User: What shape does this take?
Amino acid sequence: MLGYTADEMYSLSVWDWDSDLNADTWSAGWQDHRLQEQFQIEKMHTRKDGSQIPVEVTASYINHDGNEYSLAVVQDIRKHKAAEALIWKQANFDALTELPNRQMFYDRLNHEIKKSHRESLPMALLFLDLDRFKEVNDSLGHDMGDLLLKEATKRIQRCVREADTVSRLGGDEFTIILGELKDCHAVERITKAVLTQLAIPFDLAGSLAYISVSIGITFYPDDALTADALIKNADQAMYAAKAQGRNRFHYFTPQMQEAAQKRLMLINDLHIAVEKQQFSLYYQPIIELSTGKIYKAEALIRWQHPTQGMISPAEFIPVAEETDLIVRLGQWVFLEATRQLSSWHQVCPKFQLSINTSPLQFQRQATLSEDWIAHLNSLNLPRNSMVVEITEGLLMDVSSSVKQQLLDFGRSGIQVAMDDFGTGYSSLSYLKKFDIDYIKIDQSFVRNMESDSNDLALCEAIIVMAHKLGIRVIAEGVETQAQCDLLIAMGCDYGQGYLFSRPIVADAFLALLTSQQNHDD
Ligand code: C2E
Ligand code: CA
Ligand code: CA
Assistant: This one.
């Protein structure tokens, strides 16, 4: 351990073994410790060749027949020290990229805040989230995902200055602390460099992967004074960058804070709303264009908020989806819709009601199709009196459970409509594979049909193609007679929109249905 042979050790005195130590320091050490009879210290021990190793010295004081002795056990603690260092590294650094992890990032951020305050120089915090990383991970595998993260780390590091801290918070989330900003333009320069670097395709063992990054930026002390607040700001700004189409950066603004606070309130209130049943369904007729008759309607959820009045589903459905409340909400919509359907069926036996569904309902509730089919049976409702509207996103879910549920619907006779067609992937192969009964042309195409010949051509193409596949077409958002006439000329099957009726309460809808039936009789 000390580098001496046994013979050498015998020929040397204890003091020679350790040049740092001599009789004076040893007894001085005892002066402090003697009352304890034993003491333990860690020190660096100089070996014969001059190199140093960490040791632990455990010394005991012995008084024998009036003579004082001490017995010291010197232990090599290199392994112990190395393990300690490893643990420290694991606790503070990310194993994959070797960047500081969340823990270390937090320490550094607090440190930089103090420094920034001391030196009266601003500091920026950047929050980075890779766009489409999940797709790479899912399609090329986790190994390739790891490779991409490592390469992305190198690229980000190339863009920053020596003193800046790049950290990985986990997954595809990174942060950059840009301290001591003498020139705030540096922030934009670095941000743009990172955007450019990450947009370059990644060569992952022969496969090219294309990603990008969304970046949120916030400043100390202008935007916030504490680490937590800065992190929250940068995160919100990052979401704003994502919402604006990704592959870009966004500065934090106070309006974002307000929006985030509003969202939090909304989440809170949504929980209460589910308990207190503040929801209702409105019904919008769907017109058979060749006859002008109503045989179908779409159920649209409404939230009567106790203080804020009516809140649009466009606002609260996304929040319900983020918090999984959508599963309970969706179940309520189904039960309420079938309850109405039961009573309207007496008036109009051909009547069919559509409900909207969120992909999450299928993903979270594995027995959804089973439960719904059973419920329709228990109410003695024909299965084809119900249409389930799905979005294209659902068909992108490759899990077998989702596929199975859609096929269950098809087999049972419950019909499936593809909502907002044309705004997503609009994949023909999916339509064929999943037994889709209706396509709903998104209102954005119908709106511009008269003015934009492209949209007109698109509508026509969708109709022709759908008919070839045996799928019927519903045009959404029909507001003018001119649009209606164009759609009829193109052979569109159904229309829905303000031209015919806005969504209305159940009683009003029943009145509409009854008057049509009386007319027929
Ligand atoms: P969506 O499924 O595309 O529903 C059609 C939306 O267009 C409805 O808005 C409807 O009121 C509106 N609309 C109908 N005709 C016209 C028109 O002629 N012009 C214009 N400008 N708009 C028209 P709403 O009720 O606000 O619903 C918005 C979205 O919220 C729905 O879009 C749907 O995605 C979602 N949603 C509504 N109810 C539910 C529900 O029960 N469950 C789920 N998961 N989502 C729902
Ligand atoms: Ca819909
Ligand atoms: Ca729609």
